[in-house]
């Protein structure tokens, strides 16, 4: 035990400083927690603690130490958590601070809920929202569903829909629960080719078989996948070459099903296929125009922010992302016009709360039209917004032309009175669109 500093209280002028001083310290400790280390080895570590401090922060600890069935032991084993995560729970209880990382946040969230410390649970949820991406979305989604956190769950599904290919090819997907895989293949909105979705499901089944230690063959994989998942894969959307190279070789479909698909490609099939043939709809593409972003210094003085947009192939414009500032609300009236005739094509107004962008450092919010606007090749369109709210992020080094999926988007300065947005700086960082058809 380290020597106790004399008169240590003199340097701790508040109760928070004093509890912080005795955090993870044997000083005045009246209980010890024995927990395994997080590396999976059968090694335990001890965390000294103070019953009173724990009890005034958690009703579970209060019942444990001061309830009718109080635990009077001075050493308590907790085999269902690890040293690092319990230490962060205690750090928060003693100091209102927590050191969250991608590797510990789920365990800390589990403990925050187990010991009824809701303020810590909210910090964990916020950390997950900020750090959510396609590589970890299925792990976070599973926990969001278990904890019934609808906001976090919805954010997860947004990531899955917008970054579907990255999500289903991630390490997280192959270890996902079957219910999640089924939910993915049933979704109408997925930004992934059907063949890539099938290959991901095939990899998932192969991983399950490997974990079970059984022989991998078509029948085994089909048994793992199940008919509900299999029937929701839209095989007719695959090219004949894709089907022949990947689906047939997987041996998941039987001879009759393969034969029916070959007849489908040859246009001689006389009975309907049991698979959906319509493309998955509503998958939004996002085209960005800035290379740099700056925070909270773009003001709104009651003038329009406007920009001219044109494309060299028809697209359906679904909405426009606007810049914001962390935790701030903005009242916006957005309109799109034919730049030549000034005919209004769509309007959208409302109040929006900005959130952290998933792909870039800035904060912003999407404004979606009630119905997509067809942008015809060669025509010019004017996007304008009247924005009221706090100073926001803004973009610089804007590109006058961006090629995205074979479509050239061209941006230019509007001739209308504008506050400052142009092709090189200002508002409108991202345009949301789908291909026509």
Strand order of the largest sheet: 9-8-12-6-15-14
Distance between the termini: 73 Å
User: How large is the count of helical segments?
Assistant: 16
Anisotropy-based shape: flat
The proportion of residues forming helix, as a percent range, comes to: 25-40%
Broad structural category: alpha+beta
Cα-based radius of gyration, to the nearest Å? 28 Å
* Main beta sheet strand tally, sense and closure: 6 strands, antiparallel
Total strands: 16
Mean pLDDT: 90
Residue fraction in strands: 15-25%
The parts where pLDDT drops under 50 for at least 5 residues are none
Summed up:
Helices cover 35% and strands 24% of the residues. The protein has 437 residues and is α+β, with helices and mostly antiparallel strands.
Top keywords for this entry?
alpha+beta; five-stranded antiparallel beta sheet; 437 residues
